[in-house]
Amino acid sequence: MNSRKYPDWKDYEKQIFAAIKEEFPKATVTFNDSIKGKESKSIRQIDVSIRFKENRKSVFGIVECKYFTRKVDIGKIDALIGKMVDTGAHFALIFTSLGFTKGAEQFAKKCNIGFRQVPFEFLKDFGYVPANGLDDVFMQEITYNEIYCEKCKKLNFYEIKVVRGFADFNEDIICPECKTPHLKNVRTDGGYKVIKRFNKKSITEKEYKETIVSHLIATREEWDKKHTFLWEHLKLLPKDELCFICSKHLDQGFPGTMPTEHEGKTICFECMMSQRTLLLDSKIVC
Ligand SMILES: [Zn+2]
Ligand SMILES: [Zn+2]
Known about the structure:
By secondary structure, the chain is of the alpha+beta class. The chain folds into two domains: 3-122, Trna Endonuclease, Chain: A, domain 1 (3-Layer(aba) Sandwich); 140-281, no CATH class. The chain has eight helices and twelve strands. It has helices spanning 9-23, 74-87, 104-110, 122-126, 205-218, 220-228, 269-273, 277-281, and strands spanning 28-36, 43-54, 57-67, 91-96, 113-117, 140-149, 154-163, 170-174, 181-187, 192-198, 259-262, 265-268. β4, α3 and β5 (113-117) form a beta-alpha-beta unit. Bound molecules: zinc ion (2 copies). The site of one zinc ion has 7 residues, from loops.
């Protein structure tokens, strides 16, 4: 098992924190700040806020750490400018692993928005992004779609992940072989991929379920690890406080960890939304 596949969120957080500290050594840097908007009067969540004094003036900057799976486009810049105006920020920084799209970069510079590149492509492979500086994970949903490609004469079995609470990205779901768009502008902020291809037009309900189950088994170590590395203390908790399928600590407070019932077992809402209940149904976990 390649341990590099599993990002350590704490390391990531520390890296961003260290980078900001280095750049603004005299500033007060706050993670996961919330500020009441001057215009909107509603609470604005700020990934990281930076406050310092320069020539006796207070300077306030905001940092967005949310763009790891797509390039930052002009729409995101627009949204960030709105946030800057509303919170009274003098400048903003975006942490991204992929940079800006054409046009967005120039526009950003004009508006006092800088960007810092970080190599975190693995977040996409990983299929999830935890909240900044907090030990909770945003809700992840997974959908499966089988779509026959007329050009390739093959049925593509897609897995599409959505991370609720994360910056939303939409894209076309394309055939990996001929690049025909099969689904247009689908929300894919957790990434998507073809997990199996069939040489026929349609599959049965049984084949549909079997495909998901074998995929879940094959990737189980991955999503097990994903939860357990964040929840080292969970071994100390009583079993009934853990999701029966993924062992994540159940907590009413967060959408992904909310307890729910399936076949008499208490499981987390994320497992419910990820079709992992098929593992219970087919007695793979029992
Ligand atoms: Zn195709
Ligand atoms: Zn679970």
